[in-house]
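Service request form, structural biology core

Requester: graduate student, group of Dr. S.
Request type: structure prediction, single chain
Budget code: on file
Notes: please return the result as structure tokens.

Sequence provided:
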Amino acid sequence: MLALSCAAGAQENPLGNVHTEPPVPATKPADPAAGRVLPRTPTIHVESNLVLVPMTVTDERNRLVTGLERDNFYIYDNNVPQAISTFSTDDAPVSIGVIFDLSGSMSSKFNRARQALSEFMRTSNPQDEFFVIAFNDRPAVVVDYTSDVDDVDARMVMLKPEKRTALIDAAYLGLNKLKDAKYERKALLIISDGGDNRSRYVEGELRRAVRESDTQIYSIGIFDQYAASPEEKSGPALLSDICELTGGRMFQVNDVSELGDIASRISGELRNEYVVGFRPTNLRHDGNWRKLKVKLNPPPGLPLLNVHHRQGYYAPTE
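Core staff response, request fulfilled:
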């Protein structure tokens, strides 16, 4: 049966004490925590020629749609129809990296944003693991992999917003750290109020890393409608673009009181995904980018539905 559902005293700042290695060229991203160079990870997990595509479905009112079956989905690889080999709707655990804006402009929003992060984790699968990267002038891992929400809460209280915004560097570091994740399913949640004005990496390098990753990206954008700088004005477009590349979404916050509800909604989407697997009919290992398209054949009587999925993947090279 088809179901429609609405996911409903001064302390020292640890960010200043965490050493982070400077970025290296985008072709070989470094793991700051381990001080070693790691190989690239291809977009979408490919094992035994199986491509897995996680996706969510929403209706015209942007409500989450659950209860669809394998026969409701059609998938195309470079416009070539593919036979669906596997189909799952299980609430499998996820490794989640949180990219938390700690720049000075977040001062008035920090407490609400911190509470929203707690709400997100408490409504997630209890087996999910999390890490938190906070960023201002530079990114740093302030909470390493854990499933202990209380521990994350306690560490976040110690942080203090200040300085500028190295958003791109922080997202890049998060993608790299997810290479050490426990679970096959991976996600980033970015909580930020503006564009980048401090990073060493550039937008093109981040987009390339996102395409090569097997990570879904969601973001909560707490944007100022009177953004003063070009970087702040470009912030919404950047976050929206990298989310859509992965099948995630960017939620723009108009009122900070909405933060908790939006965080709960994102955790609900991650827990109610369809994961479709197919074996490409194109067997060439040419390393080329292949575009994905998903079409729905919904049960009769339903309104127009929208499917959110990653836009493509790189074919293997070996």
